[in-house]
Structure formats: structure tokens, C-alpha cells
Design a protein that fits this description.
heterodimer, A: 816 residues, 7-stranded mixed sheet, 34 strands, B: 165 residues, 5-stranded mixed sheet
Chain lengths: 816, 165
């Protein structure tokens, strides 16, 4: 398409911008319905206990209380992944983390519901608590879940793409490092809220802070055992998501059930403390990285081992486990690759997807290790990476298809803009620069439940008034998905983006889109929108062509006009053209849909990692380290992101800078950590800092200046060439900080966050002449299974495995 | 058993230039009364503990965390919320700049930041970047990384200065 673009690529006010600055955007807690009641959940104070009895009689009798629910009201388990149906809306017999919900009160107002929670008597019998993965490995009993690989191991994965030991033997150097990435949480400023109501026809509607209304629709119908056709889920615009609103949450099921039982709307809004306990955030991951390199700086093989602290339930954990390994191969040429992963259950809030889902942890390890390798080989870290950047239109060792790759350009840009060559190893003591790269999916290749239907659908309605309404299940979580949708439709139809009305995220009105996760929206929704808009444009072109006495191919659309391309003086308004089309074809509408291309990998497990395209990012961070306090200040960050094409450069830049912000938080201060209460106070494992004041995140005073560049090399699989920008730019930030700290003071902090106490400990070691490093010392014995052997494409493979590894005996999936 | 809920108080609140008669339980915060009793849901909440700044409104022109203020204490004082920023159909320069320049992403922290910024620009029509950072340091934003917020406030300051000339 050589047409000039009128909407795409131009900096614009986003279509929902006005609503957001006037307070008119209706978030879930802003939904207020007549006769609405309020719900509160009673949560377990124990990290692991059996429930001996629950007496709700006093709560039920409390004035203003309408209903009290407990586990026995919810016989069916649920879980967002079909293979992991291990959660209860309210725990019937056992609680598995502090915060696990056990009962619900529905009352006339929030205050009454709160007060009645105190009147519920629950008798618990505490069980042994498992607090971390090493304890989980060493403690098979009691099992937190009755399914999984064995004991308290939820998942084990092992893949080998070519013989890595043989390749390590050929390498000039083999580097082995152990890293730890602490867990952290999404911290959206909007606390999760939901309102459920039964309509006049007796059908259920749920308004909710969710990123995935379609998945919630399916899972909710299953959990409540009601026909999906009688359920409607409306995803309100989210006040930030970052992955924390991707699960079906207990409270969504509870208020739905209560609304059905009471015939009245029921609302819940979680407190900030509850949001911390619900979590589903970044998995703490211990990693061992082995990398073989030649003395001229080529990688011969890489072996990544990961150990995940999953928390008490499965959630998206099966997918998270894969993601700690599968995307390691898409940035650099890695001829052979081995990957083992283990997810354990612990008595903590379940972990899940947070921005970058499973990939920031191993990316941190890989990029810090590459910095160490470059130093050993005496090659500049930027040049080292430029020498190994993956080639476009190639397959990786694990059979992922790379299309366009703008990584080299990103590296060159940040090297130039940061003045890298004059800073690296040249700044005064206490100041340093670090460089790192990253890559991310533009949408997961497969949905979370197996099906052959489209992953995104778009429907267009247009009529003689000139109005264009676009319907799509995609969900606005702040990232600007409505704006992308309107811009694409407007571009194809030659109209203004503000003349397109978006109806999104409503499973009762909009075609299915799988939701706002895996950075899939721009690519999948965008391609479906192009198809729908082109179909409609073709109808209008036919009608207009007749009127202008030309062929449909010769009809142009731009700036609200429909015209003869060979004689632009012959024109009509878009609205006049619609009237002609409506006369000719009757009522107008169109649909479009999108399914990603099939991935070449054929082995079992090849479904996680493929994507229609990958985005790339490079980043340079400058750091100043105070040797007396260990305090790290970041004055500036330079970042370049390969976006293919920016639909709206204002929003794209905002996503990059927001990623830098969140990445700096993870690098320097954010951590979701737990502590044991003293034995006399129950010995429970509680969240150390469940408040916005104590869970430190960057304020405006901490945030450095960010210099953002977008690399635009349109990708043919993407709408107008546009790749993702919501998650990828986060990935290089954390390792770039660690590398900058090393450049500044010569100490390696091989674990995140890099807090002042760790810096001081490392400096002390350095002063004593010990290895100036703080980080995990070893990786424990994990019973990884025999790997699935899959020859890489260049070793004669066809994408299948050449063996059939034995599965762990006794492995069981949690399927209800 | 708990003590029975205290009786509602009934008083007049001056919100966005209108006097509103409102009856509410005396323990309610200004945030709760604005959102629940006056249906002014433009003001948001992120913690109810004074930590995030999402609920900032102006009381007598000064930014106040409405989750920490008792509505009772606001009797007779001028309260301004995001709903009053635009006049007629016309956006306030701050609103226009935030919408145009990416100052609002999810939009949840936006009302609190707009009100804080309004108070700043009324005090200091031409603030430096450092002063802007200080002024909004009590408003957490998880989306933007703040840069486009600073630029929006600077742009609004310019627009407001020009319109005065």
C-alpha cells in the first residue's frame, strides 16, 4: 500500500482522551445501580490451614446484612487456564495463603458488610507452611495442591534444541551465573471492582476491572454452572492493568452468585491491602545461566534453568513457566539452546502475568551475563551485541519465526544518543552507564483454550447519518486500544478518527477478542479491523463508482471525501457515498477477523512463544552510586524501540516511558516480599509491605529524564506495520541498571531489586578483596525430567521432537 | 454486638460553586460523600489512606486528599472537583494539554493530578520542571513515567499565560 497515511503515524489526542481528563471515563467502581448492595470478603489470616468450621449465624442476623456466602455455596472449582481448575470462589475446606477468601457478606452498604465480617466465626487448624521454592522442593508433604508433578512441584519443563554440552565443549569460554529476580506486583492505581446485576430477562451482567472479558465470560459461566449465553461481561476501562486483571478473580464469581440469589445488583471494591494479597504478579525466579562463547564473541550454546515461586494456586503459572525460557532465543543468534523450568507451590498469594510475563527475569540474567562476557572478551558490550543480533526472516533454535528485527538499529541509536563510546568505562568513579536489550511477543500465537476460531473479531456498523461504529471485544486498559481501533478504521475509510465510535470489551455486544494481554491488541485487533473496514470500503466504492462512472478500484477515500483517483475533482462526501451504498446494498455492515499464522514448531510445548512478530528494544541507563549510602540515582535513560510503525506516536512514547518507569521500579525498589509473624502471633506468612506507602515505587521526584526513539520498519504481519510497544520496552531496563551499577563502582548485584543495602554489602566485599558480588550462590537440585530433544532447524530438524520423554510418575492436571 | 450506627448529619456543602444539601453518616470522608452521596465519581481512590493522591480535590483552592478529610469538616468551604474544570463544553487548558500530549493514559490518577496542577498554576503561573515534579510528587501514576505529565502541565501554563496577554 503506497497510499499516504492521514491518521496512522500522526501525533493525535487519543479518541478517549477527552473522557479521561473530564472524569467521565466510567471505571468499574463508578458503576452505580439502583438497589445496589455491597459485598466484602472475609480472608484467611493463616497461610495454610484446614477449615474446621464456619459459623455465619451472627453475621446473618446483623441488621442490614442480606446474604452470607461460604465455600459450600460454590461446589465447582475454577481457574483461568482449562488445565488448572484449582481455585474455589470461597475456600470450603482449606486455605492456602493469607488472604485466601473464605466467606462473603452482602449488605446494604460497605460499612455494614465490614462490620458483619467480624461476626463470622471460623475455626482453623493450621498446617505446615511452605514459604519458598527451596522449602517446597524439600517438603513434599503436606501438598499445597493435590495435583502437579510431585510433592509441591507444580510444573517441570525440559527442552533441548541441539546438543548443548557438545557446543559448550567447543566454546572458548563457558560462563555460568546464578541470578535472582524478586517478585513484585502490578500496583494499578485502580483497585479491582466489580458489579453484578440480573437484568429483566433474568440474565447476568458483570461490569468489572478486567483485561480479558471473553475469558472471564467463559470461566464465570463454568464456575456458576449457567449457560454462557445468559452471561454478559463488560470490561470497564481499567485504571491500569499491567497483567493484574487477567485472572477470573474470586470476587467476580461471588458478586455474580449473590446478584443471582438476591435479584439485586451487588458491588465489591477491594481495599488496597486486598489487592496486594490477590497479587498474580511477577514470579520470584532463581535462574542459572550457562553460555558458551568463542573468543571472537559468538555464542555457541545457552542453557537456562529457572525455579519459580508460584504461590498457592496455578493461575497462569503453567504459561509463566514456559515464558521463563522460550523467548531467550529471539534476540541473538543462539545455535543451540537448552531450557529447564520448575514452578513450585508455596503458601503465598498466587503469582501470574505481569508486564513482560515470565520474560523479564531470564532477560535480566541473560543481559547481565552478556555484560560479563563482553568484559572478559574485551569487547564493547554494544559491539558484542551488534555482532550476534539475530537475522530477519529466520527461525530460532526452538523454532520461533523471526520476521523483521530492528534491534541493531535500536542499539546504534542508543549508543549514539547516550554518547556511549565516551562514557562506558570512562565516567568518574561512582558514575556509570549500562546497556541491555530485549524482545517481546506481539501477541501469543495460541489462545489459552484450544480452538480454531479467530483470536480477534471486529464488526462495523455504518449508516446514512455518516456515523461509523466499531465493535470489538478488545479492552481499554489505559494503553490506548480504543484509539488504535478508531485510527485503523478511520485510515481505511478515509475519515477522521474522532468520527469513529468505539464499543469495546462487552461480551454481549462485541465480537470476541481474547483481551488485553501478551501485547496482542494492536496486531490482532488491528488486522481484524483492517479486514472489516476494507470490506465496507469495497461496498461503498462499488456504489460510488457507479455514480462517478468509473471502476471501484479507481475510487479513493481520504479526509472525509470519496473521489475518483484519476480525477479528484469528481468527489462526494463520505456521507453521500454511504447513502449511495445503502441504496444499492441495503443496510450496511461488515466483519473482520484475525488468526495468527501457524508456527513451524511441531513439538509438544511449541505453542508457547510463537507470535506474528517480535518487537525489539535497546536501552542505556546512566547511574550514580553514593558509596557511603549505597543509594542509586538514575539521571537519564536512553531507549530505542523497534515498533514497526507507531499508530499514534504520542501514545507509543507514553508506553515506552511508562515501561522505563516500571522497569526502574523493579530494578531499584519494588518487591513483593513476605515475613513470618512471631510464633506467639500465629507464625503466619504475611505480606511485609501491603500498602502504597511502604511498597516503594518511583514518584515524580525519582523519575529520570527519558530520551525515547522509535525505530519504524513496518512488519508485513502487522497492521500498517505496527508492532507492540506496551511490554517490550520494560525488558532491557533492569539489566541496564545492573550493568550501569557495575560500570559505576565495579560491583555486581546479581539480584533484583538493587537496594542500597546490597550495594553496601558488595562494596564491603570489594574492600576486603573478596569477589565484589551480591547475589544467589547456587541453584538447588531440581528433579528436572529428561529433556524433550528437538533438533534446531539447521541440524536437520522438522520441528518435531526425536524422543518421547517419560513424564513424571503421578503427575496429574487439575481438571474439574 | 456493635453499637448502632450514629445518626446521619445533614448539612450544606459548597461543591463546584453549587450549594448541595446532603445527609450522610458523620464518619464519612469527603471522598465517600463526593462519590457516594453526590455521585461525583470523577474523583478516584487508590488506597483510602492518603498514599496515592488519586482522590485529590481542592478545598478553598488548596489540594486536599479527600480520603483523609472528613466531609463534616468541609461545611461551608469551597470544594472543587474535576467535574468543574471544564467550563461549558470547553476544556480547561490543563485538560486539553493532558489529552493532547499523553498526560493521561488510563486516566485513573488524572483527576487528582489535574486538581493538584491547577492549584500549582494558580500559585505559580510559570513553574519550573523541578517545581512541577515537587508539586505532583504526592500523586502516583503507574502508566506514564510522568514525563508527558510534566510536558502537559508546562503546555497548559504556556496556554494560560498567552490567553492572559
Amino acid at each position: 500500500m503506497t497510499k499516504r497515511l492521514d491518521v496512522i503515524g500522526r501525533p493525535r489526542r487519543r479518541v478517549d482522551g477527552r473522557a479521561k481528563v473530564t472524569g467521565l471515563t466510567r471505571f468499574a467502581d463508578d458503576v452505580i445501580l439502583p438497589r445496589m448492595l455491597h459485598c466484602k470478603l472475609l480472608r484467611s489470616p493463616h497461610p495454610h490451614a484446614t477449615i474446621e468450621s464456619i459459623d455465619v449465624s451472627r453475621a446473618q442476623a446483623y441488621p442490614g446484612v442480606h446474604l452470607v456466602l461460604t465455600g459450600k455455596d460454590f461446589p465447582v472449582t475454577f481457574g483461568i487456564l482449562p488445565v488448572t481448575q484449582d481455585e474455589y470462589p470461597l475456600a470450603p475446606e482449606r486455605v492456602r495463603y493469607v488472604g485466601d477468601p473464605v466467606a462473603a457478606v452482602i449488605a446494604r452498604d460497605e460499612q455494614t458488610a465490614f462490620e458483619a465480617l467480624d461476626l463470622i466465626d471460623v475455626k482453623y487448624q493450621p498446617l505446615k507452611t511452605i514459604s519458598d521454592p527451596e522449602e517446597a522442593l524439600a517438603t513434599p508433604e503436606p501438598r499445597i495442591q493435590s495435583y502437579g508433578e510431585q510433592g509441591n512441584i507444580h510444573r517441570l519443563q525440559a527442552f533441548e534444541f541441539g546438543d548443548v554440552n557438545e557446543a559448550f565443549a567447543r566454546a572458548d569460554h563457558v560462563f555460568e551465573d546464578v541470578f535472582f529476580y524478586q517478585g513484585n506486583t502490578h500496583l494499578p492505581i485502580e483497585q479491582h471492582a466489580s458489579v453484578a446485576a440480573v437484568d429483566g430477562e433474568g440474565k447476568l451482567t458483570l461490569w468489572s476491572s478486567t483485561q480479558v472479558p471473553h475469558y472471564i465470560h467463559r470461566a464465570l459461566a463454568s464456575a456458576l454452572q449457567i449457560p454462557p449465553a445468559h452471561v454478559r461481561v463488560i470490561a470497564c476501562p481499567n485504571g491500569g492493568g499491567f497483567g493484574g486483571k487477567c485472572d477470573l478473580h474470586n470476587h467476580e464469581i461471588v458478586v455474580s452468585k449473590a446478584a443471582i440469589l438476591l435479584g439485586r445488583p451487588v458491588k465489591i471494591c477491594l481495599t488496597r491491602e486486598e489487592v496486594f494479597y490477590m497479587h498474580r504478579g511477577r514470579h520470584p525466579v532463581l535462574m542459572k545461566m550457562r553460555t558458551g562463547v568463542t573468543k571472537d564473541g559468538k555464542i555457541t550454546a545457552m542453557h537456562t534453568q529457572t525455579l519459580l515461586d508460584g504461590g498457592a494456586y496455578g493461575g497462569y503459572g503453567a504459561a509463566s513457566t514456559f515464558y521463563t525460557g522460550v523467548l531467550q532465543t529471539v534476540t541473538y543468534e543462539i545455535p543451540r539452546y537448552k531450557f529447564d523450568a520448575c514452578r513450585t507451590f508455596t503458601n503465598k498469594p498466587p503469582c501470574g502475568p505481569k508486564r513482560g510475563h515470565g520474560t523479564p527475569q531470564p532477560r535480566f540474567g541473560q543481559e547481565v551475563q552478556l555484560d560479563k562476557i563482553a568484559e572478559k572478551l574485551k569487547i564493547d558490550p554494544a559491539d558484542f551485541r551488534l555482532g550476534i543480533v539475530a537475522k530477519p526472516n529466520t527461525l530460532t533454535a526452538n523454532w520461533l519465526k523471526i520476521g523483521t528485527i530492528g534491534l541493531a538499529e535500536c542499539i546504534r541509536k542508543v549508543v549514539a544518543s547516550s554518547d556511549w563510546k565516551n562514557k562506558y568505562r570512562k565516567l568518574p568513579e561512582g558514575r556509570g552507564v549500562g546497556l541491555a536489550c530485549g524482545a517481546y511477543l506481539c501477541g501469543a500465537g495460541l489462545p489459552i483454550y484450544w480452538n480454531k476460531m479467530p483470536q480477534s473479531g471486529v464488526q462495523l456498523l455504518i449508516d446514512r447519518s455518516g456515523q461509523v461504529t466499531v465493535f470489538c471485544g478488545a479492552t481499554e486498559i489505559g494503553q490506548g486500544s480504543d484509539d488504535v481501533l478508531a485510527a485503523i478504521v478511520a485510515e481505511v475509510l478515509g475519515i477522521d478518527a474522532y468520527d469513529v465510535r468505539c464499543v469495546t470489551g462487552d461480551t454481549g455486544l462485541t465480537p470476541v477478542d481474547l483481551g488485553s494481554y501478551s501485547s496482542r491488541v494492536t496486531v490482532m485487533m488491528g488486522n481484524a479491523a483492517i479486514q472489516a473496514a476494507e470490506r465496507l470500503r469495497d461496498l461503498i466504492a462499488q456504489a460510488a463508482a457507479e455514480h462517478m462512472e468509473t471502476l471501484p478500484e479507481n475510487v479513493g477515500f481520504a479526509r472525509g471525501r470519496v473521489f475518483r483517483a484519476d480525477d479528484p475533482c469528481k468527489l462526494m462526501s463520505f456521507r453521500e457515498a454511504i447513502v449511495l451504498a445503502e441504496e444499492k446494498f441495503g443496510t450496511l455492515g461488515s466483519v473482520g477477523s484475525y488468526s495468527p499464522p501457524r508456527s513451524p514448531g511441531r513439538y509438544k510445548g511449541a505453542g508457547v512463544g510463537p507470535s506474528p512478530a517480535y518487537s525489539y528494544t535497546a536501552c542505556v541507563v546512566e547511574a550514580e552510586v553514593d558509596r557511603n549510602t549505597g543509594w542509586i540515582t538514575v539521571p537519564k535513560v536512553w531507549i530505542a524501540h523497534d515498533i514497526g510503525r507507531a499508530i499514534n506516536p504520542v501514545s507509543a512514547r507514553g508506553q515506552v516511558e511508562g515501561s522505563v518507569y516500571m522497569g526502574l521500579g523493579e530494578a531499584l525498589m519494588e518487591e513483593q516480599v513476605f515475613r513470618r509473624l512471631p510464633p506467639k502471633l500465629s507464625n503466619a506468612l504475611v505480606h511485609k509491605i501491603p500498602s502504597l506507602l511502604e511498597y516503594k515505587s518511583l514518584t515524580s521526584l525519582d523519575m529520570p529524564e527519558v530520551f525515547t526513539e522509535l525505530v519504524e520498519d513496518p512488519d508485513p504481519n502487522c497492521p500498517f506495520g505496527a508492532k507492540e510497544v506496551g511490554q517490550g520496552p520494560l525488558l532491557p531496563v533492569m539489566p541496564a541498571v545492573a550493568n550501569a551499577v557495575y560500570d559505576a563502582i565495579g560491583v555486581r548485584i546479581d539480584e533484583l531489586p538493587i537496594t542500597p543495602d546490597k550495594v553496601l554489602a558488595a562494596l564491603e566485599k570489594k574492600a576486603k578483596g573478596e569477589t565484589p558480588r551480591v547475589g544467589p550462590e547456587s541453584f538447588p537440585e531440581v528433579p528436572f525430567p529428561e529433556p524433550m530433544l528437538v533438533p534446531p532447524p539447521w541440524e536437520g530438524g522438522d520441528g518435531n521432537s526425536v524422543n518421547t520423554p517419560r513424564r513424571t510418575p503421578g503427575k496429574k492436571e487439575a481438571v474439574a | 454486638m456493635k453499637t448502632p450506627a450514629p445518626n446521619n448529619v445533614h448539612l450544606a456543602l459548597r461543591v463546584n460553586g453549587e450549594e448541595q444539601q446532603v445527609s450522610f453518616a458523620p464518619y464519612k470522608t469527603l471522598l465517600e460523600v463526593l462519590r457516594e452521596d453526590l455521585n461525583l465519581t470523577g474523583t478516584k481512590h487508590g488506597c483510602e489512606l492518603g498514599e496515592c493522591g488519586a482522590c485529590a480535590v481542592l478545598v478553598e483552592g488548596v489540594p486536599v486528599l479527600s480520603c483523609l478529610a472528613l466531609a463534616l469538616d468541609c461545611e461551608g468551604r469551597a470544594i472543587e472537583t474535576v467535574e468543574a474544570l471544564a467550563s461549558g463544553g470547553k476544556l480547561h487548558p490543563l485538560q486539553a494539554a493532558f489529552a493532547d500530549l499523553g498526560g493521561a493514559q488510563c486516566g485513573y490518577c488524572t483527576p487528582g493530578i489535574l486538581m493538584t496542577a491547577k492549584a500549582l498554576l494558580e500559585r505559580e503561573p510559570n513553574p519550573s520542571r523541578e517545581r512541577i515534579k515537587e508539586a505532583i510528587s504526592g500523586n502516583l501514576c503507574r502508566c506514564t513515567g510522568y514525563q508527558q505529565i510534566y510536558e502537559s502541565i508546562e503546555e497548559a501554563a504556556r496556554t494560560m499565560q498567552e490567553s492572559k496577554r
